[in-house]
Amino acid sequence: xxxxxxxxxxxxDQLDIRGELVxxxxxxxxxxxxxxxxxxxxxxxxxxxxxxxxxxASVKFEGTMILQIQSKGPLRSLVTQITNTGNLRGIxxxxxxxxxxxxxxxxxxxxxxxxxxxxxxxxxxxxxALNGESLPEALNAYFVQSEQLPSTFQLFVSDTRVAGxxxxxxxxxxxxxxxxxxxxxxxxxxxxARDREEDWNRINILASTLQESELFTLSPEHLLTNLFHEExxxxxxxxxxxxxxxxxxxxVERTLIALGSAELNSILHDEGSIKxxxxxxxxxxxxxxxxxxxxxxxPIEIAPGTVLH
Length: 309
Fold this sequence. Notes:
The protein has 309 residues and is α+β, with helices and mostly antiparallel strands. The protein contains 10 helices and 16 strands. Strand 8 and strand 9 form a beta hairpin. The N and C termini lie far apart (46 Å).
């Protein structure tokens, strides 16, 4: 199985626990080619890209999911986005030297927002505290508090690859509804009835032995068999992921409308034209006075990563 730039779900036949694996390869290299990110920034951005990919399989939506961190520390802003079709993009902004360290040391005071913007315009948003030493710890706490479902994230970042591993406890008997499109990759004898908390703790102890080198080099089948060789593990069909920027001239036009004619005329007066840059993909858009006059009248919210000048 080719698992580069893929999101894979898996489940346990005898346990109310599910999991996910994500691998970002060419998409990660493309994102890194946009800016010379320092290593501490690169690690946080890669972790956030893996996290948003894993989160996207936890929520059913048609539209865009966004993980965004705004702070007052060295790493000032981080935005990652993924669509329900697997289009992925991300960007980070920093000021001065960014240290290696805990979240508070890297970001300072700030907060993380997880949003879902549906294609019909409906929007949901959750605010996540930047608690703990790492992004996985902050996300684990978020799931326990907001979803009441114990969850664990493991996120790994290198210069050429990002990978992530996710486990989540499910309501009792959920596994009975998860039989479609699964491939049994390892079989074991049916276990006796087990205590759910014991199962969760045991599976997490096994998962905690996962090494970065294993996640980067072993196939998903081999990896899951090594970790959980006494369990019946089923692997779903992979979902492809790709770096694709969702910007377009039409979206920029609607963003300009949202600014209002007074603001647009002021920019035209000072600059002669309006230039808009998408920081995600470095695409540049320019609008003359005539272009602005021809704009329609359906505004939308200005998207993160849009810079006007």
